[in-house]
Design brief:
By secondary structure, this protein is of the alpha+beta class. The protein has 2 domains: 95 residues; 144 residues, Schlafen, AAA domain (Methyltransferase, Cobalt-precorrin-4 Transmethylase, Domain 2), CATH 3.30.950. The protein is 52% helix and 18% strand. It is built from 8 helices and 9 strands. Helix 1 packs antiparallel against helix 4. 23% of the residues are buried.
């Protein structure tokens, strides 16, 4: 099922739930108003409806609110499930399309698949690509996928972290952003996770920045930009010219 069909189905279910909720409220109010303004107890004495009419004001309102809450809870659970499916479908479509000017795949954040050990340079590579997208027109970095579109997942990264789950992974990513670019730049990222074929991957959507983002490693400061299907560091003169043309008058 593609993302368009999922979105359409989610919308149809949302409309149905809202109609059920509205019908519940109308029914409850109708019973309450009928009991309040008319002597329906006498009219329906001895019938099953008479028992329904015996509710006082607070009981009726409490019942309406409880049933409405149940409907909202059911809708919320459905919505969460469909959002997860929709997100996974979108990530799958990006992976199927392959790497390009606005897409970069990384097999892991910090676990070297070839050497089978932690590799700090891999972390730097991810952050450099994020900075490169910020300094260009934005893009998305998918972590947990190889250049050949093979799913490796985030589990190899998880086992290297004190908190071995997606929350710990995202916390570590935030720390890397803070260390190499600066905490200010986290606002340009939207991080989400998707489950594909039983493996978790991370989608890092990067917005174009309103000023230059520099990669800082100890005392060294570098400027990266996305050009074509790769991220490249610019020399001082190239960076000066690029920044002057792109953010003229904005700094």
């Amino acid at each position: 099922m593609d993302s368009m069909k999922l979105s359409s189905l989610r919308k149809d279910i949302g409309v149905l739930v809202l109609r059920l909720l509205l019908a519940e409220i109308i029914l409850g109010l109708s019973v309450f108003l009928a009991n309040y303004f008319f002597d329906v107890e006498a009219e329906f004495s001895g019938s099953g409806l008479n028992k329904l009419m015996e509710y006082d004001l607070f009981s009726a309102l409490a019942l309406i609110l409880f049933e409405a809450a149940v409907i909202v809870l059911i809708f919320w659970r459905w919505q969460r499930q469909f959002l997860a499916l929709d997100r996974s479908e979108r990530v799958k479509e990006i992976i199927d399309a392959g790497e390009g000017e606005t897409t970069e795949f990384k097999q892991s954040l910090r676990w070297d698949m070839r050497e089978q050990k932690y590799n700090k340079e891999l972390e730097k590579a991810v952050v450099k690509n994020i900075a490169g997208f910020m300094n260009a027109d934005g893009g998305v970095v998918i972590v947990g996928v190889s250049d050949g579109k093979e799913l490796s997942g985030l589990q190899p990264d998880y086992k290297t972290l004190p908190k071995a789950n997606r929350d710990g992974w995202e916390n570590h990513l935030n720390q890397l952003i803070k260390t190499y670019i600066g905490l200010y730049w986290r606002r340009y990222l939207k991080v989400s996770f998707a489950n594909l074929e039983g493996k978790e991957v991370c989608s890092i959507e990067v917005r174009a920045a309103d000023k230059p983002a520099y990669f800082k490693d100890n005392e060294a400061e570098s400027f990266y930009v996305r050009t074509g299907n790769s991220t490249n560091g610019l020399s001082i003169s190239e960076a000066t010219e690029y920044i002057g043309a792109r953010w003229k008058g904005k700094e």
